[in-house]
Amino acid sequence: MTGPTIESRALRYFVAVAEELNFSRAADRLGISASPLSRAIRALEADMGVTLLERSTHGVSLTPAGAVLLEEGRSALDAAQAAVRRAQRAGASTPQIVLAVKADSDAGLLDAILARYAAQDPALPVTVRLCGWAEQPRLLRRGEADVALVHEPFDRTGLDAEPVAVEPTVAAVPATHPLAHEGRATLADLGLPMTGPSDLAGVRRHQDNLVDRHGIRDLAQLLALVELGRFVTLVPRSVADRYPRRGLAYLDVPDAPPAVLAIAWPQQSRSTAVAALVRAATEPEPAQHAL
Amino acid sequence: MTGPTIESRALRYFVAVAEELNFSRAADRLGISASPLSRAIRALEADMGVTLLERSTHGVSLTPAGAVLLEEGRSALDAAQAAVRRAQRAGASTPQIVLAVKADSDAGLLDAILARYAAQDPALPVTVRLCGWAEQPRLLRRGEADVALVHEPFDRTGLDAEPVAVEPTVAAVPATHPLAHEGRATLADLGLPMTGPSDLAGVRRHQDNLVDRHGIRDLAQLLALVELGRFVTLVPRSVADRYPRRGLAYLDVPDAPPAVLAIAWPQQSRSTAVAALVRAATEPEPAQHAL
DNA sequence: GTCAGTTACGTGTTTCGTAAGTATT
DNA sequence: AATACTTACGAAACACGTAACTGAC
């Protein structure tokens, strides 16, 4: 059992195999042939003195040790990648700060935040990176973004966050829905799981399932499917305001947990630019002094 | 500018140079000669398309990009090490859970916590790892420990924590101190920096400075120096109770922030054993039902 | 002249791919 | 027979150390 130093190559190889649970596919993904991959994993197991993979008759499976190495190794690789990307940005001739936002998930505040940040004294150029459903935390962890606007709840591991805005949640239903003309409904009316007042996790999980199942990539697709009567969904009011559609009705849902928009950044960030952008997003509106 | 993949060797080399700010010493520390080190760093800079080190007449210094890569690269290396160590422990024939504790910093609760944990159904053997002054977070981040008992404030980056116990802070002064027989004193009386009621950081920083300056490694040394009249120090009451010394007096300090002992663990830990140990440490005492 | 960092060059190790081997369906 | 993982072997790439080079004190 050698020391704890590991080459990132070995870790990348292992993660690929552990994710695919198949040497050939993993080798493909890595752009190498299966032979060096097999040897590398065996060497890694020998170095660590631990069996990582169970090669049984019915394919490859993870041992407990392998499961741990997959989980923790993945985040170590993310961290290394993040280190490189952030260093590259810090060393660029015109350093930029990257803000990740899911399209239409800014509660209409993006412009105001950017303007407020730009008004501060040493303000770096901000690149807005649009991303998919729950990609923001991943982009932060991989160093592809420095800050993100993201709706709660999200995986806070390694991240810090401050709330930016709270707004009511409304339900999107087909115009043909029995309650479409009521203007309001309860979660139970809509067949959505009941949750405690402060627990959005249930509703969110429900929506994530739908998103996964139908391979939805953006809001327009989601709303189109709602329009077709496939299901109903919950969205922040600001999203509803931005997407009026003839075939859709939006209902108030008094018992739905409110939508909380937060600004998140890597916990270990020491960047003053990030801090300034966070301040711009969270500071209360400056009081309007009378003339 | 190549992709963001980096070999951990390159990262280790860079961190060594960035910490030493000197190629020869860094090469020494790494156990290689200066030549491959110089080449490796230049290759890394070329790969990344960024200058990391400023080689000027008066030695080596970090560029902004280098500073970022040092900070983030260090934690990426820690994460990789942690992944390996935790996987090794998970794969061991008799998996153990490692609890890091600074000697005498358990508020006398260690035995009770261990007993309560051991009473749970699937309880793993617990290895108590004694460590130095503020080593616990580092041990957690490097995977050398799974859980830690640590006094606040500490660097929470990447860690989660729950409070375990709060106890009054007392001052240790030489028996010859003018206030030794008063039994109590204020921070101002003792010449310690004033801090807000909820801010221990000032006092803690003051103590850390002293610890660093005198190279103190354990409590006995610290108290011996206090006894010699070199300075005064603040300790939790439980520590005072455990170290009665003839040459020392302990004074109540009503305006000192209380000492908060917390149990901390890596944020991404999915280990049920860790969760059970945390529960054992934080759960309220079971109510004593009357007969 | 010495100290610190870099470049030049020859050597040894590591990693690769192709191809053959073994086992399961 | 086909698929999936492993072992065997020769070739290419990589990292190393010694030694020579450059510039600053």
From TrEMBL, chains A, B:
Annotated protein name in UniProt: LysR family transcriptional regulator
Gene Ontology MF, one: DNA-binding transcription factor activity
InterPro entries named in the record: LysR_HTH_N, LysR_subst-bd, WH-like_DNA-bd_sf, WH_DNA-bd_sf
Signal peptide location: none
Protein origin, superkingdom: Bacteria
Keyword NADP found: no
GO-annotated cellular components: protein-DNA complex
Keywords: DNA-binding, Transcription, Transcription regulation
Annotated HTH lysR-type domain residues: 6-63
Family: Belongs to the LysR transcriptional regulatory family.
